[in-house]
Amino acid sequence: MYLFQSLTERINSNNPVKVGLIGAGKFGSMFLSQVPKITGVRIVAIADLNPAKAKLTCGAVGWEDALINRTAFLDDGILMIEKYNLDVVIEATGDPRAGILHALETIRNGIHIVMVNVEADVLAGAKLAEEAKSAGVVYSMAYGDQPALTCELVEWARSIGFTVIAAGKGTRYLPSYHESNPSTVWAHYGITESQAKDAGMNSKMFNSFLDGTKSSLEMAAISNATGLSAPSNGLQFPPAGMDDLAHTLRPREDGGVLESKGMVEVVSSLERDGRPVFKDLRWGVYVVIEASNDYSAACFQQYGMNTDSSGRYSAMYKPFHLIGLELNISVLSAAILNKATGRTDAFNSDVVAVTKRELKAGQNLDGEGGFSVWGKLCSAKNSLKHNYLPIGLANNVRLNKNVSSNTPLKWSDVDIDRTAKEVDFRIQMEKKWGDYLN
pLDDT confidence of 106, banded at 50, 70, 90? Predict the structure, then answer.
């Protein structure tokens, strides 16, 4: 991509890339830790619900006082977007409704946006990407996060002529985790509540990683960016290590677990009895490819590729991802190359709210990673057909009926203000893509 060479030109012309960050949590702080070493990129402003804490975070990740003092800290992302002359906005709040509003304002102001907020992207990314394209700005996935890295592997495979059989990531998973909640989450991670608190770990966020919601969101994002399909009954989370990807993630007719070629899927780092998978991919991403012909299959063997028993399926993977430490690739790609590092192109897949337990009319849902619901991956067509409630809107809304455990919720099950800008934006997307999918 020649990003560094192009960045050098910006440095020599004294024209730094001007960046605003919304959300100085874990992802944002990892990016901020690299900023002092990135000449040619200037963080103009940071918006966070707790600006004083965000300022302390900058000091904790290595910023000198001079850098902190020349950066604006405020508690209003919209104000930051409007007030400062920015090249790129990074949306890293993790709040789907706020993320939509921030993205729309960024696009309206003609600024590129890097959407760390996968929750907002899955909730309304197809329409946000259209808005950005019309405005002539970049709407991008966040490099360093698993969706963008997986999309990169898919692009690599397709660009050199291979059929993509499956793509996704690894995680720690057992079926019982779907019932996990913020009061039980730390036991699954093998730490105490006090240890988690001392480390500044958010119980809802980490529970979302565990209960399947975050995996579903990330696979939906990949599906919407690449056209790969969601499994018909949600993610299977098959146990598979690095050496077994091509064996496990092939079509059922060939001995694998996939319904068909061209799927997203997450592999577990745990066997179903809790034993660790050999050479697990818990922190990584992968793509499974099919040899184009006998000659290509022979090349797989000649060059030491891991394959299934037939030799026709192989896998390329990246065992780790560095999350916010790698984010500047997206910033520079948007500002210098005018290109996204992965982008939603369609509404192929959705993530719907499924009850963790029996819920009563009058209860408030507490959203992603909470006590009441988890997010399950499904096709957008199926979501719209059944009028399912997206997980991104299942927070701080009241149930209007009793609902049994393990039940997908519908829009009609909750009282929600459909006139709210971000809710209406999702409804508009559903109407447009509903006509297209039907």
Answer: very high
| In a shared domain, residues 75 and 152 | no
Domain ranges, residue 396: 352-437
Same domain, 160 and 216: yes
Same domain (yes/no): 283, 367:
no
- Assigned domain for 138 exists: yes
Give the mean model confidence (pLDDT) for residues 357-371. Answer: 96
Q: How confident is the model at residue 195 (pLDDT cuts 50, 70, 90)?
A: confident
Q: Answer yes or no: do 257 and 379 share one domain.
A: no
Q: How far apart are the first and last CA of the chain?
A: 39
Residue 418 sits in a domain whose CATH number is 3.90.1210
Q: What are the b/e assignments for 293-307, b being 16+ CB within 10 Å?
A: eeebbeebeeeebbb
* CA separation for the pair 298, 302 (Å, rounded): 6
Note whether 138 and 252 are same-domain residues.
Answer: no
- Neighbour tally for 347: CB within 10 Å: 27
Residue 250 resides in a domain = yes
Phi, psi of 287 (to 5 degrees): -140, 135
List, as one string, the DSSP characters of 267-303. Answer: EESB-TTSPBPTTB-TT-EEEEEE-SSHHHHHHHHHT
Separation CA 263–CA 240 (nearest Å): 16
The pair of structure tokens assigned to 248 is: 């496990």
Side-by-side strand order, sheet with 72-74? 72-74, 41-47, 17-22, 88-91, 112-115, 139-141
pTM metric for this prediction = 0.96
Q: 3-state DSSP call for residue 204?
A: helix
What's the domain count of the chain? 3
Q: What is d(CA 312, CA 186) in angstroms, rounded to the nearest whole number? A: 42
pLDDT of residue 438: 63
pLDDT at 221: 98
